[in-house]
Amino acid sequence: MRVAILGYGNLGRGIECAIRQNEDMELVGVYTRRDPGTVKTLTGAAVYSADELPAKKDEIDVLILCGGSATDLPKQTAEYAKYFNVIDSFDTHAKIPEHFANVDKAAQENGHTALISAGWDPGMFSLNRLYANCILRDGKDYTFWGKGVSQGHSDAIRRIPGVQDAKQYTVPVEAALESVRNCENPELTTRQKHTRECFVVAKEGADKARIENEIKTMPNYFADYDTTVHFITEEELQRDHAGIPHGGMVFRTGKTGLNGENNHVIEYKLTLDSNPEFTACVIVAYARAVYRMNCEGLKGCKTVFDVAPAYLSTMTPEEMRAKLL
Amino acid sequence: MRVAILGYGNLGRGIECAIRQNEDMELVGVYTRRDPGTVKTLTGAAVYSADELPAKKDEIDVLILCGGSATDLPKQTAEYAKYFNVIDSFDTHAKIPEHFANVDKAAQENGHTALISAGWDPGMFSLNRLYANCILRDGKDYTFWGKGVSQGHSDAIRRIPGVQDAKQYTVPVEAALESVRNCENPELTTRQKHTRECFVVAKEGADKARIENEIKTMPNYFADYDTTVHFITEEELQRDHAGIPHGGMVFRTGKTGLNGENNHVIEYKLTLDSNPEFTACVIVAYARAVYRMNCEGLKGCKTVFDVAPAYLSTMTPEEMRAKLL
Q1: Which tens digit of pLDDT belongs to each residue from B41-84?
Q2: Interface with chain B: mutation pick from A88, A180, A321, highest number of B CBs within 10 Å
Q3: In this complex, do A306 and B325 lie within 8 Å of one another by their Cβ atoms?
Q4: What are the tens digits of pLDDT across the range B152-204?
Q5: Which residue of A97, A133, A257 is in closest CB contact with B324?
Q6: CA-CA distance, B19 to A103, in Å (whole number)?
Q7: Quick check: B281 contacting A, CB < 8 Å?
Q8: How far apart are CA A265 and CA A257, in angstroms?
Q9: Least CA distance to A91: which residue of chain B?
């Protein structure tokens, strides 16, 4: 399988590493909108201008789109589905129906296969929500995120005057997890589910009390949460908070039996040292499925819900049944 | 969807209850090899002789086989795949390839769809092993069972002279779970993974020391484990150990990054008050998939690996993408 990457940020680098762990795949190029001469890849993979992509139409089996959901993917995925089988990690939840329709049209018209919203949420968490809902019909769903770094919240802190740098962790509330695991079916407010922990480097002479207050009262981002702010030095931030860990849990609890007398808990939990690298691993597995489905004539836009798990594996059906069933 | 049950034990009763939670399904009959007059169903569902099944060929969309893996299913699933779409929970691991081949032949020849080995292990645990293996390519798998009742081990104790009744719990070792979750990649012996806890009612005058010794030294079942034996009264057994809880965890831990510098943990955990009722819920969801796949012309024998998750749900693709993705 010849795979190419469009966009070379954290996710692109994660894809580059993940492809090396999949012996049936070859990375045939990293495409960028920057000057290719300024981009140096981790593994020495060749870098080309994104302008060259349409001409490579017959040399790439799947194009992996590594841009952002805000402005890149809404244009890119449908555009490149004209030339290639494509996969993205689009995660703007409210716009998934529109994005799906656009990508499906382009893929169908050009005989390609596309998969949108691969990763862990959306992605593996979505799959677990679906499976658990189909199994436990009379039940309740809970999703918790963290402990992990939220890029959006870290950025929001960095925009406050007087802040030099910052990192924000989303942390699930232990008492809420406990209550869910005990099948108490709690109704949880935003504040009861997660806390927010901020590590902030203030500029010299900045008013720390004002910064702390601006963080804690920021609408949408922090006002609805119990937020802790720690002021630390730049050295401490670099030393202790350089990683991009994340993770979380999807639960469904439900009742069975003649009178709903038996309780059950399904829990799917991810603990990830690197959010972009794990996301990349999921995308690469689904890139295999996209190519195979295209070879079998299954065209158009798909999501993780439409992919039989066997398409993700390099094992034969016989091996899978013998080793994993 | 018209669904029928063959075999009315714990699993059959679980299926009967689960069908009531699925509004698109109707239980059209419970079939038994016993005298139908002697079988009383929980919900008042009609009971028929298994001999009548072939004549009901056009009145049943999926037949759910609720017999045992030792002697019932190896014959029944292939036999009834001649007349019906069928699903079973066959769990004799070593014989899955042979069972698959037999069922596939019968289903293919008669234009039916079959699914074998549905449930939680094999079933949901298998699925999670597959997904996690496709995502984390450089990693290690662990499956733990419990805390829960092992019917096979309970039966083995009951066969010891002097034992009136018994219940055996399989318990995962906390230190082993901790080590796996910490990405220490331990190599675990049988003894290091699980302990066995036995609650035994001795017959009057029986030699308890001999019974305890026979349990603890029983090859295959107990000798390789740290086993605890508690002698209790019949009343205590009825009061405190009447349920059939079970569950367990599937882990995969793995490394990503240019030099494998980042660790990740995927954990899927089930905590079940009733093993047969949860198994039944999984089977009923896959029964829906079997019928739909048959309607779409996907014939022959399948496993959970071959079923796109969307087939399990009563939601439309649009609803799924909007609500669960």
Answers
A1: 999 999 999 999 999 999 999 999 999 999 999 999 999 999 99
A2: A321
A3: no
A4: 999 999 999 999 999 999 999 999 999 999 999 999 999 999 999 999 999 99
A5: A133
A6: 37
A7: yes
A8: 15
A9: B325
**Helix A275-295 and helix B124-135: axis angle, to 10°?**
100
ipTM of the complex: 0.97
User: What would the pLDDT profile of A47-92 be if each residue is shown by its tens digit?
Assistant: 999 999 999 999 999 999 999 999 999 999 999 999 999 999 999 9
* Token pair for B150: 């092992």
Token match 């597995």: residue? Answer: A285
Calpha distance B172→B44 (Å, rounded):
39
SS (H, E, C) B247-304: EEEEEEEEEECCCCCEEEEEEEEEEECEHHHHHHHHHHHHHHHHHHHHHCCCCEEECH
Give per-residue burial for A109-143: e unless 16+ CB within 10 Å, then b. eeebbbbbbbbbbbbbbbbbbbbbbbbbbebebbb
| Whole-number Cα distances in Å, B288 to A151, A302, B125, B284 | 41, 21, 20, 7
Which residues in chain A touch residue B134, judged by CB atoms under 8 angstroms apart?
285, 288, 309, 312-313
* The two three-digit tokens of residue B10, written as one number: 């714990």
Half-sphere exposure of A320 (CA within 13 A, CB side): 25
Residues of chain A in contact with residue B128, where contact means CB-CB under 8 angstroms, are: 268
CA distance A22 to chain B (A): 7
Residue numbers of B between 4 and 33 with CB closer than 8 Å to A: 14, 17-18, 21-22
Degrees, nearest 5: CA angle A183-A187-A193: 90
Q: Which residues of B touch A27 (CB under 8 A)?
A: none
Q: Which residues of B210-238 are buried (b: 16+ CB within 10 A; e: fewer)?
A: ebbebbbebeebbeebebebeebeeeebe
Number of neighbouring beta carbons within 10 Å of residue B30: 25
B285–A258: do the CB atoms touch at under 8 Å?
no
CB contact under 8 A, B325 and A264: no
Alpha carbons within 13 A on the beta-carbon side of A62: 31
**Three-state secondary structure readout of chain B:** CEEEEECCCHHHHHHHHHHHCCCCCEEEEEEECCCHHHCCCCCCCCEEEHHHHHHHCCCCCEEEECCCCCCHHHHHHHHHCCCCCEECCCCCHHHHHHHHHHHHHHHHHHCCEEECCCCECCEHHHHHHHHHHHHCCCEEEEEEECCEECHHHHHHHHCCCCEEEEEEEEEECHHHHHHHHCCCCCCCCHHHHEEEEEEEEECCCCCHHHHHHHHHCCCCCCCCCEEEEEECCHHHHHHHCCCECEEEEEEEEEEECCCCCEEEEEEEEEEECEHHHHHHHHHHHHHHHHHHHHHCCCCEEECHHHCCHHHHCCCCHHHHHHHCC
> Would an 8 Å CB–CB cutoff place B101 in contact with chain A?
no
Cα(B290)–Cα(B305) distance, rounded to whole angstroms?
Answer: 13
Give the pLDDT mean for B232-244.
97
